[in-house]
Amino acid sequence: MSIPAIASTRNDALASLLDNAINNKTKPLGSLGMLETVAKQIGLIQNTRVIALEKPAILVFAADHGVVAEGVSAYPQDVTWQMVENFLARGAAINVFAQQNGCALHIIDAGVNHDFGPRTGLTDRKLAHGTHNFAQQPAMSSDTCATALAAGMALVAELDGNVVGFGEMGIGNTTAAAALMHKLTGIPVAQCVGAGTGLSADGISHKQRVIEAAVALHASATEPLDVLATFGGLEIAMMVGAMLKAAERRMVLLIDGFIVTSALLVAARLQPAILDYCVFAHCSDESGHKKMLDNLGARPLLQLNLRLGEGTGCALALPLLHAAVNFLNQMATFESAQVSEKSE
Amino acid sequence: MSIPAIASTRNDALASLLDNAINNKTKPLGSLGMLETVAKQIGLIQNTRVIALEKPAILVFAADHGVVAEGVSAYPQDVTWQMVENFLARGAAINVFAQQNGCALHIIDAGVNHDFGPRTGLTDRKLAHGTHNFAQQPAMSSDTCATALAAGMALVAELDGNVVGFGEMGIGNTTAAAALMHKLTGIPVAQCVGAGTGLSADGISHKQRVIEAAVALHASATEPLDVLATFGGLEIAMMVGAMLKAAERRMVLLIDGFIVTSALLVAARLQPAILDYCVFAHCSDESGHKKMLDNLGARPLLQLNLRLGEGTGCALALPLLHAAVNFLNQMATFESAQVSEKSE
Predict the structure, then answer these.
(1) Using the beta-carbon criterion (under 8 Å), do A331 and B92 form an inter-chain contact?
(2) Does residue B47 lie within any of the structural domains?
């Protein structure tokens, strides 16, 4: 397994062409705000003045976490597989929003602690029945971590669209994500932990202590891939691989909430230019997400107090990406519409 | 012309039913954030547990403003009619976003300073070739204002959908809206004025002085309809009537940016319960909009640094309203999906 090389999208000549195209549209300068930023970014990613979003897809990676044995989640571990069943039955929020906004949905078993058997609509990439409990030992071996990365890359290599969103399901994975965030940013654990699916204040304190103890136990893990193997999840590791491959293929990456952004943190430590390819869908209500986004210099499109995961933020943000593409492709210019320009 | 009576949507029994329905969906409690608030609000507006958005429409009211003679806009007055032509040719931002999101668009000439003649796609409700210059005299007579309100009501009486967004076009109308905001909220003029389509700092200062002088000239105007006739625009007055009728018909009102919200300020002073029917699409970058929203206790869905008007924020927010309706109607419950509930 080798990490894909990711090139910066920087291209000053194209950037200037895109700025001109955006500024000549019949609207006051800059008045489409973040949509203008996104349109330009997509142009730089696609390396063209004529941008298009093709076959958007959301990949939802599911896996279980050994650390739930420490009592860090408000829901029992069985909810992971039960929610995968719910995805397959099209009853979850992500099913509803993906269908509404014309987005294909891929459900991937990266390591759920349940035997689904062969199932229509489920992509079986199970590497284990969940991770080990990182309060006692590394969540996975470096070999397993590398296999997960490679599996994520292979999945994205097969996609035929040019925009991919990331989602996840895994009881306990805000604990893994908070540990990754602490290790990769240096932000104190207390500012990385949150309520997850709905912990009480006491529950959050306990989660913090579990992470702090584990961080002390695994003090030697400092390199991004070591940190990922030690504290991550199989769904997180597979997502890291998928993100790297998507950027290598110059796709638009749609980043969801706290757990997905923790995977991006790992990917960005490996290949910083990956950030050029990322559109941040939303700022989650999960406590550490805003600081995580700030650490990445990211500005999210939506602030709706979501904290559901599954890629729901990606599906909800997708119409704004279409709006960015459509205004650039379809709006008249001052010249074509014979509208007078600014008079001062 | 009489002002429609608007009933509060408050209904504790229905609210409780809606809360239960929302909380039983397969997601952590409250995790869909503002979408849950909107779903409940739509239920209360439509007075049912089974909500639906039918035939969404955006009404774009266009008119000219005599106060542009004072040099308060970065663009010449001709841009108003030129942009109306652009709307009819489907070249403007609102055309692109309305089409993308399946929203009918009605372009209404409330008082543009131009003779269009009979035109397909243009609803002719022209009451004058623009308002008078409110720096010298009231923008319109109370009769004209009443006629504009009645015209707006009549337009909405004919709509066959149940969700209506409001947009506007009118060079100079941020000046009118800032004056309305000041008079109806008491917020100092300096905090009500902004760059509009792109004034310099000097331009903004000049606009502020023009408004302050006019406010001194028309000190006797204090009642909402007097204030509207004195400082408003024909598009703003027609929108006030349209909003009142839409709420009377228990439609969902989608509120756009600074000018549209200034019309709502007038309507809400006449019938405070209208706010129960309003979903606020976005917070504009026009300087006073956030304070205006705060004054109304409003929380907007989007913060994208838009400042374009035309109803663009409404069109962009519409998919989020659909998402609110769809999750309530389509998601599985914990029981139906056999997903375990919270364990603590």
Answers:
(1) yes
(2) no
